[in-house]
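Now for a chain:

_____
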Amino acid sequence: MTSDSEIPNNTAGIGTQVTRHEVARVGACAALAFSRRTRPVLRRAEAAARVDLAAAIIAMDAADDRIAAGENVHSMNEQAAVEEALRAYAQALANLVRGQLS
């Protein structure tokens, strides 16, 4: 079964077709909305991790711009920081969706 498999949606008596991916997205939206309302500590942790990820991406882009301008530098540290921030954000998001601290 793929994420694009179609599932009949006859809930409202309408013969529309939605994909499993669309169903999963609706469920994820509902879970996130609920968790964001009921778990403010986890919501703040997810928001902080998102900002940290954005800051790491901006720093990596700045390093790449310096490289493109001819400076003799590399962006490996910045790339590693983005990977770590991405991992931390993914964990914070998972905690929020699950409603638990890791």
Observations:
- The beta strands are 6-9, 16-19.
- The chain has a mean pLDDT of 87.
- The chain has three helices and two strands.
- The CA atoms of residues 43 and 87 lie 17 Å apart.
